[in-house]
Amino acid sequence: MVVGCVIGGLLGAFHGVWAWRTRLYPRGGRGVALAVVDATWSLPNTVAGAAFLAYALARGNRVDVAFSRHRGTIGLRDGVIKGFATTVGPVQAGTAMGVDDHEAVHVLQARLFGPLYLPLVLVNWVVATVLPYWLLYHDRSASPITDPRTYFRHGVYPHCWHEEWAYRRQGTPPPT
Ligand SMILES: [Zn+2]
User: Fold this and answer.
1) Is residue 175 part of a domain?
2) How many domains does the chain have?
3) pLDDT over threshold 90, residue 1
């Protein structure tokens, strides 16, 4: 418990340092509101994002300062998973992949659902894996399910609630 609090505090401070270095939050009431949400209701997501950021930086990724400034999202230049942009809390890895609006939906979802966000995503992953309800409406001619790889890539992943929502805003699930 104590160790968890210390690690959480350090990661929170790490987020604060990068928020300051990138001028992350916009000026005025909106910026204050975003900073307060990230430090309170959405704190579990902020801490998870900071851990993701530390991991990415340790692997040689770099913060995209121009992207991050006043955006409320810390951008990392490169993706962490090859070929994909990934967002954890207020941290987006992969800023040049043409999916910024899609990833912004995930940042918003984390702030809206706060401590419930990651558990809700996890529960949906598990349910979609063991009980593939999405087969009822999945377009099998456009993206066939033929093996475990396509089961997850075309089925489980894009049909989780947070991805259905984000893909409605921008992009299409991976075709192959
Ligand atoms: Zn997504």
Assistant:
1) no
2) 1
3) no
